[in-house]
Amino acid sequence: MGDLFVYNTLVGDKVKFEPVSAGNVGIYVCGPTVYSEVHLGNCRTFVSFDVVVRYLRFLGYNVRYVRNITDAGHLENDSDFGEDKISKKAKLEQLEPMEIVQKYTLNFHSVMSQFNTLPPSIEPTATGHIVEQIEMVKSILENGHAYVENGSVYFDVAKYNSDGNNYGHLSRRDIEEMSAGSRDLQGQQEKRNPVDFALWKNASEEHIMKWPSPWGIGFPGWHLECSAMGAKYLGDHFDIHGGGMDLKFPHHECEIAQCVSAHKKNPVNYWMHTNMLTLNGKRMSKSTGNTLLPEDIFSGENAILNKAFSPMVVRFFMLQAHYRSILDFSSEALSASEKGFNKLMQANLLLQKAIYSKATLDKQLETKVVDLINGCYKHMNDDFNTPLTIATLFELVAIINTLNSTNSFGTLSEKVFNSLQNTMNGFIIDVLGLDSVQINNKNDKSEKLIELMLSLRAEAKNNKDYALSDKIRDDLTKIGVVIKDGKDGTTFTLT
Ligand code: AMP
Ligand code: ZN
Question: What domains does the chain contain, in order, with CATH numbers?
Answer without folding.
Answer: 5-274 (3.40.50.620), 279-434 (1.10.730.10), 437-494 (no CATH)
